[in-house]
Design goal:
Two copies of one chain form a homodimer.
Chain A lengths: L1 E7 L3 H21 L2 E8 L15 E2 L2 H6 L3 E6 L7 H10 L3 E4 L2 H17 L4 E2 L10 H8 L5 E7 L2 H13 L3 H10 L8 H4 L2 H15 L9 E2 L7 H9 L2 E12 L2 E12 L11 E8 L3 E8 L3 H17 L7 H4 L6 E2 L4 E11 L2 H13 L4 E5 L8 E8 L2 E2 H12 L4 E9 L2
Parallel strand pairs in A: 1-2, 1-4, 2-3, 4-5, 5-6, 8-10, 10-13, 10-18
Antiparallel strand pairs in A: 7-9, 7-11, 9-10, 11-12, 14-16, 14-17, 14-18, 15-16
Helix pairs in contact in A: 1-11, 3-4, 4-9, 6-7, 13-14
């Protein structure tokens, strides 16, 4: 059967979808009995050169796509919230399926989109929005459908993982690694969105909403970027058997949901620690399946196009629609918490006096934070010494209080704080 | 909507499915709108104690399941080819969906089952048959549907991975590690099926058939087990920066398919090298998505039940059936080859004489095999010395010929051969 679709956007991902369907359309037809025909491609500039994108399909008129009843699915790869949202709602209200790679759109307007799809009996698909080619959305919604999800921990921003990998492998500083990432096109000219963790936060909003069957809003996600990580942190961590990764973490503990994006120290033996360069990976802990990891290319034209084409085919073959827990109810009572348990790594410079450690330990003790490791690496110089602490697992809020008090001491200067997961 | 299903078998996996649906049936209904009701469970012995399995659903009469038109799906977890095959064909001919965890059944009778499902307009699902909870089947058939698959490389036998991990981590010999695996229940009393690679071969037949859209028969898969691997091999490999894993490899190169199960040396930095214990992982290289890895529990009651429940739900919600390339055509002209390219590690003991290396190198040279590394670790004793060779990438058949000639030399005794992948 032939199915006609439209694309919104013919940038990197849109053009990738064109190329992929042109190359492998015959194989898809042979294997699945579906012939996917791109009927129209919405662009702003009709005259721009776009290799692999058939010029005769271009249109700058969204209404032409809406008016064509033979188009049963619209795939969006334009990015940005507007006008993507308005288009998405129009498409769904017309009963056409909507496939999107747009994490920002989804994380901001998940419920409205899901509800509209539900009310109009059509489908919303978004595998390409998180972790590129890695089929983690389908894993959470389909393969693990019979599981309670305890946690998701993901390296879901390739730019920051590239930077941190460079820092670790080549002992580079943050600025130098960022400069190289920018030069190679892994980081955008303004890297804020990536290095401050905002991009990972959008994606975690989507992942954790699916994992916990509850709408998790971007605003509720704790977020800390990688800009404060130094070559020294990286080195000290490695000496202690840890790597440092920007993790997006969603956990359900005691019916509370914790959602957070921050640099994280992980044991070098942890599967996520060997995810290097611009690769993405999501580690899932599920009630029946146990621990799983999904690893692959999180960005790029063809990896994202691969996910989009997979979703297009899936949508075209799926008659029954599902997965509207936010709309239909079925949401557990779980609440988002701003407190959670983890261990902390603290790097500092302190006066080289016998009583300093006692004063530090005293403050932590007062706030119920117990220390697991205290190191004074290297020699003292100028009357100062490095002090590295790792706490036992403790409460985020207790630690923050202890830290506040610690910062008031004259005898110690806190350089960095990094959360530790095992 | 309520859907009634039957289970064949109430062993580890069948009982796991019962428990999982009992625990999480409400959540599945909330999220997907489907209520899965187990209507009957076929067992041989009605009186055996089976915790978590409702006794009132047990039957020893397969005909009762067939006669019940309200049962729309049958999930099989009995194992063995007979009578599973006869049951499967009856189920499919009756237009009911068939879900199976039975790799042996599938790898031996894939086409007959697919054809029967096709001819009767129903569905055949088998995610639990390979790598337990890891959704690699769905990745190959759905998520990567728009990709050509270049290769699959999998650690898909937990028993052997447990043994090799123990040997590597604790410097154990094969016999000792096997004994521990047996004691802990990771290996069966007769471990032949696992340690000789037969189990992995069944699974590779399924994976590579899907990957290459061509029926790959068990008999065409080269198979070598792990019984010859020694603690010494493991140690030498590690010193050279390699780990040793039992890999199931399917590759398409120059329109030829190579399929092989054998112990493999992999660089320690390869993602598959950090897959330890009884975990499974499948590494896929796809044309658009690039390199991916799927990691998780490859066996056990709940992980396999997780995959089975996911497939059951998927089948119940899927109206359109697909993926019958073996039946409908669409098979590329690719042929299975018994020659392929890889590097080789050769461990030997040779006479400590200046000309021995020259004679060895001469034989390899004559057969067009070039050497990358030659090591003589340790001191000579009793006039003998260890010789370790690693070849450049070469042809399997050329290497075998060189090896034959090498074995005729008096001055060198070949201890072990291990293929090397990068």
């Amino acid at each position: 059967m032939k199915k006609r679709i439209a694309l919104l956007g013919a940038g990197t991902v849109g053009a990738g979808v064109c190329r992929l369907l042109a190359e492998n359309g015959d194989m898809i037809l042979d294997n699945n009995g579906v012939e996917i025909e791109i009927a129209a491609i919405l662009v702003r500039d009709l005259n721009k050169e776009r290799p692999g994108v058939p010029k005769e399909l271009l249109t700058d008129d969204f209404e032409k796509i809406m008016a064509d009843d033979s188009i049963v699915l619209v795939a969006e790869a334009m990015g940005g919230v507007h006008p993507a949202l308005e288009y998405a709602l129009r498409v769904l209200k017309a009963g056409k399926c909507f496939v999107t790679a747009n994490k920002e759109l989804l994380s901001q307007h998940f419920e409205e989109l899901e509800r509209t799809a539900f009310e109009h009996g059509t489908g919303l698909y978004f595998e390409p929005s998180v972790a590129g080619a890695v089929p983690v959305i389908k894993a959470l919604t389909d393969s693990l459908a019979a599981n309670r999800i305890y946690s998701v921990m993901g390296i879901i921003n390739g730019t920051t993982n590239y930077i941190l990998s460079k820092m670790s492998e080549e002992n580079m500083g943050y600025a130098e690694a960022l400069a190289e990432a920018t030069e190679l096109g892994y980081a955008e000219p303004d890297p804020t969105n990536d290095v401050e963790g905002y991009d990972a936060r959008f994606k975690l909003s989507i992942l954790s909403s699916l994992a916990f069957d509850r709408r998790v809003y971007v605003k509720d996600i704790f977020c800390e970027g990688i800009t404060a990580i130094t070559a020294d942190d990286m080195r000290v961590a490695k000496d202690m058997g840890y790597g440092i990764k920007l993790l997006a973490i969603g956990k359900m503990e005691d019916d509370k949901i914790q959602v957070r994006v921050h640099p994280t120290m992980l044991p070098l033996s942890h599967p996520l620690c060997s995810v290097n360069g611009s690769f993405n990976a999501v580690f899932v802990n599920a009630s029946a399946a146990g621990e799983m990891m999904f690893y692959g290319r999180g960005a790029g034209d063809m990896p994202t196009a691969s996910a989009m084409a997979g979703d297009i085919l899936h949508a075209l073959m799926q008659e029954t629609r599902r997965r509207y827990p936010f709309v239909l109810g079925g949401v557990p009572a779980a609440q988002i918490t701003d407190d959670w348990n983890s261990a902390f790594f603290l790097s500092s410079v302190a006066q080289d006096e016998p009583l300093v450690l006692a004063r530090v330990a005293n403050i932590f003790g007062k706030h119920g934070v117990s220390l697991k490791t205290v190191l004074q690496p290297g020699e003292a110089s100028d009357g100062c010494t490095r002090v590295i602490l790792i706490t036992h697992i403790t409460s985020e809020l207790k630690f923050r209080k202890a830290l506040e008090e610690l910062k008031e001491l004259d005898c110690i200067e806190v350089r960095n704080i990094i959360r530790v997961e095992e």
